[in-house]
Amino acid sequence: MTITLTKTNFTAGELSLDMLGRGDLTAYANGAKRLRNVFIAPVGGVSRRAGLRHVDRARGPGRLIAFEFNTEQTYLLVVTGGYVDVYADGAKVAGFAAPWTTAQISQLRWSQTADTLLVVHPDVAPRRITRTSHISWTIAEWSFYAKDGVVYQPTHKFAADQVTLQPSGTSGTVTLTASAAVFQAGHVGLRFRLQQKEVVITAVASATQVTASVQQTLVDTNATTDWEEQALSSLRGWPVSVCFHQDRLVIGGSRDLPNRLWLSKSSDLFNFDLGEGLDDEAIEFALLSDQVNAIRAVFSGRHLQVFTSGAEWMVSGDPLTPGNIQLTRQTRVGSPVDRQVPPRDVDGATLYVSRGGTDLREFLYADVEQAYQSTDLAMLAKHLMVAPVDQDYDSGRRLFHVVMGDGTLGTVTIYRTEKVTAWTLHGTEGAFRSVATVEGEVYVLVERGGGTMVERFDDTLSLDAAMTGEAATPKSTWSGLGHLEGRTVRILADGGALEQAVVTNGVVTLRDPARSVQVGLAYTHEVEPLPPVVQAGSGAGPGATMRLVRAHFRLLDTKALHIDTGKGLAAIAFRRFGRHQFDAGPPPFSGDVQIRAIGWRRDAFQPLWRIAQDVPLPCTILAVATEMKVAE
To answer: I need a labelling partner for 170 at 20 to 30 A (CA). Which of 23, 207, 362, 530 fits?
Structure first.
C-alpha cells in the first residue's frame, strides 16, 4: 500500500521522545524529533539559524544587560567581575568599575527608567548607573530622600516585639540601652528610629548598649517598644529585586527580609515615608501564607507581579494606594533561588522559569477567571530544559531565547494567536552564558577557547565567532582573527568557495585570492522528523514495515541541502561546481526538490529522512511531502 503524508509546518518544534507514541496529537504532525541550529518561523518554515558575528572579547564571565536610552539610542552593558563595559552599535563606547564579583553576577537584578539603571544584589549595596552622555557613565550607591535629619528609607524591627530601647537623653550624644541582646558591631553607622525620631549609632559597647548621635530631638527618655532600624544595610542585607510600577519604585525582598515588599511614595522614587497612609505615601507589607515565599522577582505587568520561591502573586489596586492595595496568591510554581533568571514580557504574558528549572511558564491573566494561570510552554520538550540561567525575547522574529546551564541555547518560537510554541536547540564550539536583545539585535556571551566573547546573531552570516572582510582587489591573506587563534576555521570566499585553515598570529591564508570573505567556526544544523504514523485503519501502526519511495521538499532561498534517506548524506546541487569553487556562489533556489529512496525499515526510532549540514549556506524548508510504501 502506498501512502503520501504532507508536513506543512514545524510549528510544534522539537518534541521529547516520550511523544513517539502520541501520533494522535496535532503536535505530532507538526513536530520533529530533532531540530538543531535552526529557527522556526511563526508561519511554520524552518531555516538554518543566523551565524554569530564576533563583537569583542569580554573581560571574563558575566551577564548582558540591555539599556534603552531612547528610541534612537540603545546600549549593551557587559557586566563582568569588577567592571561594566558599554557598547553601542557593536562598538565599545565606555566602561567603569563595578562592585560585583564574578560569583555574584548570577544573582543580579535590574530595572531601568529614562537614563538610569538600578542594579541590586542581596549582598552588595544597590547601585544606580546613569548615562550622562554617549561616552560618559557613572555608578553610585542609592541615596534615599532625606530631610531634617531623617532618611526616609525602609525600616524594620528585627527584635521581638516586647524588646525595648531606652535613651539616656533626648539630644546630642546619648546611650541606648536595650532590654535584650540587640546590637552587633555592624550597627555602627546605621540609623534607628525611636518613636519616629532618628538617631545614628556611633559605637557599640555591648549587645545591649550603644552610643548614638541624635538627629531629631527624642520624645522622652522612657523605655519604648516603638523602635526600628533601617531594613537595608550591610548588616541586614540589601534588596533582592527591583522594578518600577505605577510611578513607584518597588523593592522586592532583601537578604534578611526575603518576603517583604516596599513601594515608594508616588512620583518620589527614593522616598519610603509611610506617613499617615495617604494615597500617595509609601507602602510596606509582607507576603504571609502557608509556605515559604522568598521574593525572587518583582515585575510590572498588567498588575504588579511577585515571583517567589514557592508561588506567584498578584498585587492589585487601581491605582495602588495604602488603602486599596490587595495581595492575592495566583499559582504555586516557584522560581529558582540559586540564580536570577529575569521574567520577560511576551505579548502581555510574563514568561518565567520554574524553581526546578524544567518548566518555562507563561504567567497570563485569564479574563474569564479574573486570575492568572501558569501554563508550561516546555511541556512537550522537557529534554531541552536544563537549568536555565538567562533569557530574553526577540519580538521582531518572535523568538524567545533561553540560555541553559549546560551551555546550550534553547529557542522557542511563540505566536499565541496561532497557538504556535515551537522549540529548537542551538549549540556552538563553546558554551552560551548570557543573552540580551538590544533594539532587535540579539547578543550572546559565549565561552570559547579559554575566553569569553561578546557575539551577535547576524542574518548575513552562517558561521559562528565570524568576521567578514572586503578588498578592492583579490587577496589571499586576511587578518584580524586573534579571537580564533589556533582554531580551525571555515572560510566562505566570494560567496561560494569553501576552505578550511588554521588561524596563526590572527591571520588565515586562502588557496585562491578573494575579494570578500566570511571566516568563522562551522556549526551543523539538523532537521529530523518524527517517525510517520498512519491511522484510521489505512496503514502503519507500531511495528509496521515501511519504506520511503520519494520525498518532496519545498524550499525557499536555499543554497545548499544535504539529505540522508538511510544511505548517507547526499548533497542536492543547485549549480554546477567549478574546480575549487562556485563561479560566483550558488544562487538561492525556491521551489520543489524531489529525492528517491530505497530500503525497508522496522526501527520505530529511525526517521525516513534527515537533514544535517555544516556548509555555511542558507537553507529553508517550508514543507515536506513523503510518499511511502507500507507492507501489508
So the answer is: 207
Is the distance from CB of 352 to CB of 387 less than 8 angstroms?
no
Residue 61's pLDDT is: 97
Task: Decide if 63-143+236-385 and 155-230 have a common fold.
Answer: no
Neighbouring residues of 256: CB distance < 8 A, sequence distance ≥ 6? 158, 236, 237
User: Which residues have CB under 8 Å from 121's CB, separation 6+?
Assistant: 100, 104, 107, 108, 109, 238
| Cα end-to-end span (Å), the chain | 7
Q: Give the span between the Cα atoms of 624 and 602, in whole angstroms.
A: 22
* 3-class SS string, 397-446: CCEEEEECCCCCEEEEEEEHHHCEEEEEEECCCCEEEEEEEECCEEEEEE
Q: Within a 13 Å sphere around the CA of 87, how many CA atoms are in the beta-carbon half? A: 23
Task: Decide: 57 and 23 in contact? Cβ < 8 Å.
Answer: no
Pick the CATH number of 464-521 from 3.20.20, 3.40.50, 2.40.30, 2.60.120: 2.40.30
DSSP 125-194: EEEEEEEEETTEEEEEE----EETTEE---EE--S-TT--EEES-SSSEEEEEESSS---GGGTT-EEEE
Q: Which listed CATH number (3.10.590, 3.40.50, 2.40.50, 2.40.30) goes with 155-230?
A: 2.40.30
Q: Write down the architecture of domain 63-143+236-385 according to CATH.
A: 7 Propeller (2.130)
pLDDT at residue number 584: 57
Enter the DSSP assignment of 49. Answer: P
Grid coordinates given for 32: 520533529
Query: Nearest 5°: phi and psi at 387?
Result: 45, 65
Q: Residue 440 CA to chain centroid, in angstroms?
A: 15
Taking alpha carbons only, the member of 559, 576, 577 closest to residue 47 is 559
Query: Do residues 342 and 363 touch, judged by C-beta distance below 8 A?
Result: no
φ, ψ of residue 18 in degrees (nearest 5) = -70, 0
pLDDT value of residue 580: 40
CA 510 to CA 496: how far, in whole Å? Answer: 13
Q: Is residue 208 a contact partner of residue 265, using CB atoms and an 8 Å limit?
A: no
State the SS3 of 471-487.
EEEEEEEECCCHHHCCC
Q: How far apart are CA 45 and CA 623, in angstroms?
A: 7
Strands 497-502 vs 464-478: parallel, antiparallel or unpaired: unpaired
Residue boundaries of the structural domains of the chain: 2-50+529-630, 63-143+236-385, 155-230, 464-521
Residue 541 CA: distances (Å) to CA of 473, 510, 606, 630, 631: 61, 53, 14, 10, 11
Burial class (CB in 10 A: 0-12, 13-18, 19+), 70: exposed
Q: Are 181 and 207 in contact, with CB atoms under 8 Å apart? A: yes
Q: What are phi and psi of 393, to 5 degrees?
A: -120, 130
What letter does residue 574 receive in the DSSP assignment? S
Give per-residue burial for 361-373: e unless 16+ CB within 10 Å, then b.
bbbbbeeeeeebe
399-447 confidence digits (pLDDT tens): 999 999 999 999 999 999 899 999 999 999 999 999 999 999 999 999 9
What pLDDT score does 86 carry?
Answer: 98
Q: What is the pTM of this model?
A: 0.94
Output phi, psi for 20, to 5 deg: -65, -20
Residue 566's Cβ-count burial label (10 Å; 0-12, 13-18, 19+) is middle
Q: pLDDT of 94-103, one tens digit each?
A: 999 999 999 9
DSSP state of 29: H
